[in-house]
Specification:
Two copies of one chain form a homodimer.
Chain A: E1 4-6, H1 7-33, H2 43-70, E2 71-73, E3 81-84, H3 93-113, H4 118-144, H5 148-176, H6 182-199, H7 201-207, H8 216-252, H9 254-259, H10 263-270
Antiparallel strand pairs in A: 1-3, 2-3
Helix pairs in contact in A: 1-2, 1-8, 2-3, 2-8, 3-4, 3-8, 4-5, 6-8, 7-8
């Protein structure tokens, strides 16, 4: 944590943290409210997605307050600098507690929404959940250490379960995607790329101190990186899970698609090649 | 932000901010509760409208607290002046964070409630959403800058996506309105005018400092303008979306209209020219 932040740096972090609270809180509410928009068999995935965003919103309330309490300012009317407050420090630990709970649940969302055979689902979960928890737990000792060697060692150890998760998602899961409707396959592919890209931000932010970037700018960059990655990896990810649940509901039950006004969508992806007249479904 | 506010100026802003909280919070609750009043295919639009008002309510709670913390007073018994508090400042950034999330969603509401063909809907959304996010993001650097040239440049850049959005809404969307029931066409027209009129308030408030109006009165005027525009552009707008969803539900399904007591309304717009006796339907 830097000793001093400029007015601009302070408010960049301040407003980003508030943005994350709003994004997580209202994505969580949204995912709970839209449950009737998917078939019952896909609601479990939506509930887990909503819980993930709710847990993140809680931790960002804490992070926001921790950040506000960690600095004092001589600012009047919006100009001035922000200095470390005595007897207080920004608690990075909230992030690790959040990830320890939410990262395994993010993998649960993905596996559950696909509604795979129970045996395959169990096999995926018993490997993904412990691996993801281990990944977070191994990162923490490095994060709180001021020593670069410790940071290196735990960073490296944490990468092993990360690579294992990627292997399971990109190799093993791919085999089971053949049975999914084409639009679902496409969205799942996007979801994995989103997961890979956003989870990649965390190790980069983690490694910033190793690159000698330890000033106020690097610290602000790390907070911004974690914040934006959390929005993408939880809120946007949850909305994509909802999209998969919608598409699968429409594919499973044409009558449901008709009532929901999604028949056009289901048709366009599922049966268009069968020559059904698409225009007739529009606007019903 | 002015150095001093009179008792009247302070309480004008204070009470307006509280009015916005009440308007957004209860419009949000209303829009969630009335979901069964429209057909399932239109509920998505209502949920998004409710989320928009909820996000606005959250940010106005923050804005309200920020405003209260930014001033100290020597007032006793309701008389006195309000002076900038040391170590605190009113955070205008909350408004931009709010708009960044809500403005794209306002356009989603409008497109989703029309239940257009999926292809057209996607084509509208992939242009409107990035344009609206860009419009807000480009306004922010000008808003926080004390420099008039910077304010001018970013204000001008922000106008480009704004004009593009108006083009899409008033030219491209018009073509697809022909298939909508007459009452829906009329409400959509009103909605676009509301959108145009209220979104026009934001650049005017933005430009006040350029006009040399930078005293306490201008600042109070800006806060009042933003607050009233936010009520019209989110809460009233959401209620008009609900009206469109109701009219379309009645037009789609006469049996639903009958149960909801809206058959008279649907008939008067849809089938009046077919010579059906209107009076017989009233009050059922």
């Amino acid at each position: 944590m830097p000793e001093q932040l400029t007015n601009g740096q302070y408010h960049t972090v301040y407003n980003l943290l508030s943005l994350v609270i709003a994004a997580q809180l209202f994505t969580s509410i949204y995912l709970l409210v839209v449950q009737p928009r998917v078939l019952p068999r896909y609601r479990q995935a939506l509930v887990v997605a909503a819980i993930v965003c709710g847990i993140a919103a809680y931790h960002y309330f804490r992070i926001f307050d921790s950040f506000r309490g960690a600095f004092v300012t001589d600012a009047v009317g919006g100009q001035g600098t922000y200095t470390q407050a005595a007897g207080s420090a920004f608690n990075e630990g909230y992030r690790y507690v959040d990830w320890l709970l939410t990262v395994p649940l993010l993998l649960v969302e993905l596996v559950v929404v696909l509604a795979l055979a129970k045996k395959l689902q169990t096999s995926l979960l018993v490997r993904l959940i412990p691996a993801s928890a281990l990944m977070i737990a191994l990162g923490y000792p490095g994060e709180i250490s001021g020593d670069n060697l410790t940071r290196n060692v735990f960073g490296l150890l944490s990468t092993i379960p990360f690579l294992y998760i990627l292997y399971v998602l990109f190799v093993e899961l791919t085999r089971s995607l053949d049975r999914q409707p084409p639009a679902v396959r496409q969205t799942v592919s996007r979801l994995r790329i989103l997961l890979f890209a956003t989870w990649g931000v965390y190790p980069i932010a983690y490694l910033l101190p190793l690159l000698g970037l330890d000033g106020a700018d690097a610290w602000v960059g790390k907070q911004a990186g974690y914040s934006i990655a959390d929005i993408l990896a939880k809120a946007l990810y949850g909305l994509l899970i909802y999209r998969i649940a919608r598409l699968k509901s429409f594919a499973d039950d044409p009558a449901f698609a008709e009532v929901e006004g999604g028949h056009d969508q289901a048709v366009s992806h599922e049966h268009l090649d069968e020559g059904q007249p698409k225009a007739a479904k529009v606007g019903r």
